[in-house]
Specification:
The chain is built from five helices and ten strands, in the order βαβββαβββααββαβ. With 225 residues, it is of the alpha+beta class. The strands form two sheets. An eight-stranded antiparallel sheet has the order 2-10-3-4-1-5-6-7, sandwiched between helices. It has a two-stranded antiparallel ribbon with strand order 8-9. The longest helix has 14 residues.
């Protein structure tokens, strides 16, 4: 199965403010969080990690994960970002301030669409992220580069961009887990259930569409290496 991964990162609130907003967001969607009930990590519907005023979360619902995170961002009026691994082939992100989309980036936008105008919207603007996140542009701009796919002549794709974005990174361009290096550059801890900072939560949200054909549920199996 192709690797898919989605993490939401929020910048600015205290842990108490984030907790209250998450509770209210769940209630707004007709659900609830049992914040102090910590199930076995693999059974958790919400995994959180906190590093001062940067909070990361995996939400084991689809597509309610976005609606839940949007409700948190709107309630707190803060910058937040959804970082995703797509189809085991690339990683990308969408950046928001409250409910407003500020920027989008993809390491390989051509994977989805060859339209030049649309691809231009997925190139990312490092200055927009640096300003929203209040960090040095130089600390994140190297991640926001197209991997430059090329046909290897045998029907497979290789990437012209090689090496690491920054010397301390664990993963190179062309590796989907470069996403984890980018996450750390934003000051976030990975909500990895094998890590001491990962906290499993009990979250219930009603489905936004009936169960059945086309309905997908994900288990909280994600792990960053």
């Amino acid at each position: 199965m192709s690797e898919r991964n989605s993490v939401f990162v929020f910048k600015g609130p205290t842990i108490e403010e984030f907790r209250e907003a998450a509770q209210q967001a769940a209630e707004e969607l007709g659900g609830r969080i049992a914040w102090d009930v910590n199930p076995a990590p693999m059974e958790a519907n919400l995994l959180t990690s906190h590093n001062d005023r940067v909070h990361a979360a995996y939400v084991n619902y689809w597509p309610e994960d976005y609606l839940f995170s949007l409700a948190i961002g709107k309630r707190l009026a803060i910058p937040w970002i959804n970082i995703r691994i797509q189809e085991g082939s690339l990683w990308d992100f969408s950046l928001y301030e409250g409910e407003n989309n500020l920027d989008n980036f993809s390491t390989w936008p051509e994977y989805w669409n060859d339209d030049a105008d649309w691809i231009a919207t997925q190139r990312g603007r490092p200055e927009a992220l640096a300003r929203a996140w209040n960090i040095d542009r130089a600390s994140i701009e190297n991640y926001m580069r197209s991997w430059r796919p090329e046909d290897d002549g045998g029907g497979s794709v290789r990437f012209a961009l090689r090496g690491k974005a920054y010397p301390a990174d664990r993963h190179e361009y062309g590796d989907i887990w470069q996403m984890a290096d980018f996450l750390r550059a934003l000051g976030a801890h990975d909500p990895n259930w094998n890590e001491p900072h990962s906290i499993p939560r009990h979250l219930e949200l009603p489905p936004s569409q009936p169960a059945g054909r086309g309905r997908r549920r994900r288990k909280a199996w994600w792990k960053f290496w």
